[in-house]
Amino acid sequence: xxxxxxxxxxxxxxxxxxxxxxxxxxxxxxxxxxxxxxxxxxxxxxxxxxxxxxxxxxxxxxxxxxxxxxxxxxxxxxxxxxxxxxxxxxxxxxxxxxxxxxxxxxxxxxxxxxxxxxxxxxxxxxxxxxxxxxxxxxxxxxxxxxxxxxxxxxxxxxxxxxxxxxxxxxxxxxxxxxxxxxxxxxxxxxxxxxxxxxxxxxxxxxxxxxxxxxxxxxxxxxxxxxxxxxxxxxxxxxxxxxxxxxxxxxxxxxxxxxxxxxxxxxxxxxxxxxxxxxxxxxxxxxxxxxxxxxxx
Length: 296
Known about the structure:
The chain is built from nine helices and no strands.
């Protein structure tokens, strides 16, 4: 078991390095796509476009990673998770510009989370699924913090993958985080989406402002597609409470303006992870959260 956990942690470090690429490039890819669509619409309308189309290929695989400051390509030996950053002492090998500490932090976090899930659930299909879900949540959290955006290219496949898992997976000998049935997952996805949709429109009608984005609806729907509707209240209360406390603290410390929006996705992701790993012990300790009958 210790060897399996260590191998899982190593895999997590490698995936964390790729997640850094996803977190940085996916929003840029979306922005390029939106610009291309706008140019196409302007061209159809007979209007001149203000800027040329981007000719160079840009996706999750190409071009190779480069220093944002000097544009020098990062050598393979400097791209080793955690060790590369430590070797360079957090500086670009070519120009000496600082490399943000967030990169090794995301790599380390992904490694720790992956190892934790294998330690918690063992060598099971539930553990493998929980690992993939957690990788998606890490990417979504960072993208939402950076851009206040939860890409459909992650949230929607995550939702469908949860339903497909319940359809195809056989129950493990040891109950895992996804003990809900397919029906529980379908109801969970509907409940998650509609609940925040109603909150969004109620807040908009009452204040004339938008309190959250549609990406939040899809993320909660995806989480409950995996966890089942029984986890609706724990996930919602955990995310709302954590978000409110953090927001108040940031405003009180002067780190955030009262009128500046605070992304809700990271709190949903954190609550979903907690419910996934410790959901049943949490419900056992706080039975008032179990407003629905147990899964299965």
